[in-house]
Design goal:
By secondary structure, the protein is of the alpha/beta class. The protein is built from 27 helices and 16 strands. It is 44% helix and 9% strand.
Length: 742
C-alpha cells in the first residue's frame, strides 16, 4: 500500500539551476532556496530564510546571475572560465539585508565567429558544459551557436549532387571554419573526415539542449548568399553570370588575404531563394528553429557591383529568414563598413539587432570615435559590445576607463535610446578574466563607478581574501596596462616581442594590431613583485596562481621589449660588446618565460595541440587536427597567405613549448646574422633612410626565409605536455629573481 501511495505522490523534477549548483559543488543545491517570479523587468534578488540563501529572479539565467553575485560578494568565490567549481562552506554566509538588482538591458550576447575557431575549435562536451554554466552565471542569454554548421552545408551539397571531393574543397578544416562561415575562404584546413561531421552534429545538439533548458536563446547562423565558388564558376560558364534583372552575382575570383573566397550569390538573384530554402530546411531539421539568426552580407567584401540594388538585397535576406521563422530577428555585426546605410533603411525596426562590436574603443552607435556614425543605428535595436581580444593573443590589456565612460554615456545620450543589451564579441576567449567580469556586471549597476573601487571588490572576490599587496598590484595594473586611452586604437592585447618575426623595428607581432606604447612597461614588474611577495599566502588558490603567472609573464615580456630596444641601439651604434651581452639577455628572458609558463596548463601549447588530437578517432584524424592547431597559431596559411596576405602570427601565442621551439629559433637566427655583420663576417645591415639601402638584396638579415623556418614546426608531431608541471609558486619566485634580480 505504501508503495502504491508513493507512486501517486507528485514528483518534482530538479530544475536546471539545481543541476548548475550541483556542478559547482556537490550538495550546493540544498544550501539555496531558488524562487522564480514573474516580472516585466529582468531582476535578481538575494535574501535569507533560516540558514539558507534565497535567490529570486524572473528566469533561470537571471537567477544564475544572482547566484554568481552572491558567491562573489558574500562567499568570496569567483567562478571563472578555468575553474567553474568551488568548495562552498557547510553553512553559507548570510544575506543580512535583501539585495535587489534590475536591468532594462534584457539581451546579453556572447561570442564572435572567430571565437569558435581561435578558442573552441577542439572543445568537447565537457568543456562546452563548463562554458554554458559560465554563460548562465554571467547573464548571457543569446549566444552565437555556430558549432556544426558545416553539417548543414554538407547536407545541402549532397542534396545538390556535389561529390565528396567538391564538399572537401569547399568546407574548411576545424581551426578555420569561422572564416569559411564568414565568407573569407574555402577548403583550407580540410578535408574533414566523415566522423568530424558526426561528432559536431551530436555536440551542437547537446549544446542547444542545455542552452534551451536554461532559457538561453541561441543565435544560429542564417543565410546571406554564400555558395561554393565551384557553383559560381559553373553558372558563369553556362549563363555568363547574368541574372534575370541584369544584376551580376559576385564571382568566385575574389581573394581574402590570398585565399579564394566562396562565391556570393546576390539576394536579388532568383537562385538565392533555392539556396536559402535548403539552408533553413537543413538547419531546422538538424538543430531546430531559432528566434535569432546571425547574418553579415558583404562582410569585409570588396568589389560589390556599383549598380547592385542593396535595398532589395537586404530585404531578400530578411525575408528568407522570416520564411523559416516569422518571429525570428536578424542579428548583424556593426563592424567596419557594416551596417551599410541601405540596410538601415531596408529593414523595419524590430526585425534586426545590431551588435556594436567594438564599443569600448570604436563605437558606431553615436559616441565620438574613429568609426563615428552620426545617426548611429537609426531606430534599430542594438547591443553595446566588448571586443577586447583579437586572434586569441595572450597579453594583459583593457580599456577600463573608456569602457565605463562609453557605457554610462548610453544612459543619457539620445542616440542610445534603442540600446537593448550588451555583448561579449572577443575573437578569442580564455584570457583577461577581469575585463569580462567587469563587462558582465555593467547591466546590473545603474550608477557609474570608478575602476579603482570596482577592482578592490574584484580582487577580494577573486582571491577570497582582502590582501593589501594583491590590491596594490591590481591598482597598478588598472592605472597602467588596463587603462588604454581613447587616443590609442590598439586592437587586442599588448603583444609580446618574443612572438614577433625579428627585425630592427619590431613593435607588434601581428599585422593589424595597431599596437602602440601607452603604459610604462616597468609597472608590470612592480605588480609582479607584489604578487610574488604574497604568493606563499595564496598557494593553491587557482585564481591567484593563474594571475601570478599571467602578470609575471607580462612583466617578462615587457622587460624583454626594453632589452630588445637596447640591443637594436647597440647594433646601430656598432657597440659589439654590449650588443652580444644584450641579445643573449633577450634570449635568456625568452627561455625564462618558457620555464614559467610550463607551470600552468592554460599557458602550454600542449593544452591546445593535445585538445586537438584528443577528438580524433584515428591517427590520420589526430594528425589533421594537430596540423590545424599548429598552423593557425603560426603561419595561419600557406607561404603566400602568411607572407603577402600578412596572416602569419595573427593568432600568435605566448605559450610554453612554442616559445622554445618556434619563437626562440627565429630570434636566435636573427641575432646570429646580426652578430656576423657586426663582426665583419657578412655585409652590414643598412641603417638609414635611403630606400635603396632598405631594399638591398645582398643583406642576409633582410633575406632570411622565415616561412622556411616556420613551416617544419607546423608539420611536426613532437608531443607537448598539457598539464601544469612543477611547483608554481617556487618557480615564479625563481623566475622573478632571475629576470629582475630582486
Amino acid at each position: 500500500m505504501l508503495f502504491t501511495l508513493c507512486l501517486l505522490l507528485p514528483s518534482f523534477a530538479a530544475t536546471p539551476i539545481d543541476g548548475l549548483l550541483e556542478r559547482i559543488d556537490k550538495g550546493a543545491s540544498k544550501k539555496f532556496i531558488i524562487e522564480q517570479k514573474k516580472s516585466d523587468i529582468d531582476f535578481f534578488e538575494l535574501d535569507q530564510r533560516g540558514k539558507k540563501v534565497v535567490v529570486r529572479g524572473n528566469n533561470y539565467v537571471n537567477i544564475a546571475v544572482g547566484i554568481n553575485w552572491y558567491l562573489k560578494y558574500y562567499a568570496g568565490v569567483q567562478l571563472t572560465w578555468n575553474c567553474i567549481e568551488a568548495k562552498l562552506p557547510a553553512v553559507l554566509p548570510p544575506v543580512n539585508k535583501k539585495e535587489r538588482h534590475e536591468t532594462n538591458l534584457s539581451l546579453r550576447y556572447d561570442f564572435n565567429y572567430c571565437t569558435f575557431s581561435y578558442s573552441m575549435a577542439f572543445w568537447d562536451w565537457e568543456r562546452w558544459e563548463k562554458e554554458i554554466d559560465w554563460m548562465a552565471l554571467h547573464g548571457i542569454n543569446m549566444p552565437l551557436a555556430a558549432v556544426g554548421y558545416e553539417c548543414v552545408w554538407k547536407n545541402i551539397m549532397e542534396r545538390m549532387g556535389y561529390s565528396k571531393k567538391d564538399i572537401d574543397e569547399f568546407i574548411a578544416g576545424p581551426a578555420f571554419l569561422a572564416w569559411w562561415e564568414m565568407n573569407n575562404l574555402e577548403g583550407w584546413g580540410g578535408p574533414n573526415p566523415d566522423s568530424w561531421y558526426t561528432q559536431q552534429e551530436a555536440l551542437q545538439k547537446k549544446i542547444l539542449k542545455r542552452m534551451r533548458e536554461l532559457g538561453i536563446k541561441p543565435v544560429l547562423p542564417g543565410y546571406s548568399g554564400m555558395v561554393p565558388s565551384k557553383f559560381m564558376s559553373q553558372q558563369m560558364s553556362a549563363t555568363s553570370a547574368e541574372t534575370d534583372n541584369g544584376e551580376s552575382s559576385m564571382s568566385n575570383v575574389q581573394l581574402w588575404n590570398g585565399f579564394t573566397r566562396p562565391g556570393i550569390l546576390m539576394p536579388t538573384d532568383p537562385r538565392f531563394q533555392m539556396f536559402s530554402d535548403m539552408f533553413y530546411e537543413e538547419s531546422v531539421r538538424l538543430f531546430g528553429k531559432a528566434d535569432y539568426y546571425s547574418m553579415d552580407p558583404f562582410h569585409e567584401a570588396a568589389n560589390i557591383p556599383a549598380d547592385l540594388d542593396l535595398d532589395a538585397c537586404f530585404k531578400a535576406v530578411n525575408a528568407a529568414m522570416k520564411k523559416a521563422n516569422p518571429k525570428a530577428k536578424w542579428v548583424c555585426q556593426g563592424w567596419s563598413e557594416n551596417p551599410r546605410p541601405e540596410m538601415l533603411h531596408a529593414i523595419e525596426p524590430g526585425d534586426v539587432i545590431f551588435l556594436d562590436l567594438f564599443s569600448e574603443c570604436r563605437p558606431m552607435w553615436g559616441a565620438p570615435s574613429l568609426w563615428f556614425k552620426e545617426n548611429g543605428y537609426d531606430d534599430h535595436d542594438w547591443c553595446f559590445c566588448l571586443l577586447e581580444n583579437f586572434g586569441a593573443n595572450i597579453g594583459l590589456h583593457g580599456r577600463m576607463d573608456q569602457l565605463l565612460d562609453n557605457f554610462y554615456l548610453t544612459k543619457t545620450h539620445p542616440r542610445a535610446k534603442h540600446l537593448v543589451g550588451i555583448g561579449l564579441t572577443m575573437e578569442g576567449s580564455e584570457t583577461n578574466p577581469i575585463m569580462y567580469e567587469l563587462m558582465c556586471e555593467l547591466p546590473w549597476r545603474p550608477e557609474k563607478f570608478t575602476k579603482e573601487e570596482w577592482v578592490r571588490g574584484y580582487v577580494k572576490a577573486r582571491y577570497g581574501a582582502d590582501d593589501e599587496k594583491a590590491q596594490e598590484a591590481w591598482q597598478i595594473l588598472a592605472r597602467e596596462i588596463y587603462n588604454c586611452p581613447p587616443s590609442c586604437n590598439q586592437q587586442g592585447p599588448h603583444e609580446s616581442i618574443f612572438c614577433s618575426r625579428p627585425s630592427l623595428d619590431c613593435l607588434q607581432a601581428s599585422s593589424w594590431s595597431k599596437m602602440s606604447n601607452y603604459y610604462d612597461p616597468t609597472t608590470t614588474a612592480d605588480a609582479a613583485r607584489l604578487m610574488v611577495s604574497v604568493a606563499d599566502k595564496f598557494k593553491g588558490n587557482n585564481n591567484f596562481e593563474y594571475d601570478l603567472v599571467d602578470i609575471l609573464r607580462q612583466a617578462i615580456a615587457d622587460q624583454a621589449r626594453i632589452v630588445y630596444n637596447q640591443t637594436v641601439a647597440d647594433f646601430k651604434s656598432f657597440d659589439k660588446k654590449r650588443f652580444k651581452s644584450d641579445y643573449k639577455e633577450f634570449l635568456r628572458l625568452l627561455l625564462l618565460q618558457d620555464k614559467l609558463l610550463k607551470t600552468r596548463s592554460e599557458f602550454r601549447v600542449g593544452h591546445w595541440t593535445e585538445q586537438a588530437k584528443k577528438i580524433g578517432n584515428t591517427q590520420a584524424e589526430k594528425d589533421l587536427y594537430e596540423w590545424n592547431a599548429r598552423v593557425q597559431i603560426t603561419t595561419w596559411g600557406n607561404r603566400y597567405c602568411a607572407n603577402i596576405g600578412k596572416l602569419r602570427d595573427y593568432a600568435h601565442k605566448e605559450w610554453e613549448g612554442i616559445l622554445k621551439d618556434f619563437y626562440y629559433p627565429r630570434w636566435a637566427k636573427y641575432w646570429s646574422v646580426l652578430e656576423e655583420q657586426i663582426d665583419g663576417k657578412a655585409p652590414v645591415l643598412p641603417v638609414g633612410n635611403s630606400s635603396w639601402l632598405k631594399n638591398s638584396q645582398d643583406n642576409p638579415a633582410l633575406n632570411i626565409d622565415w616561412y622556411a623556418m616556420e613551416e617544419p614546426w607546423t608539420l611536426d608531431h613532437t608531443p607537448y605536455g598539457a598539464e601544469g608541471e612543477g611547483d608554481l609558486v617556487e618557480t615564479a619566485k625563481e623566475v622573478f629573481k632571475e629576470a629582475f634580480g630582486k
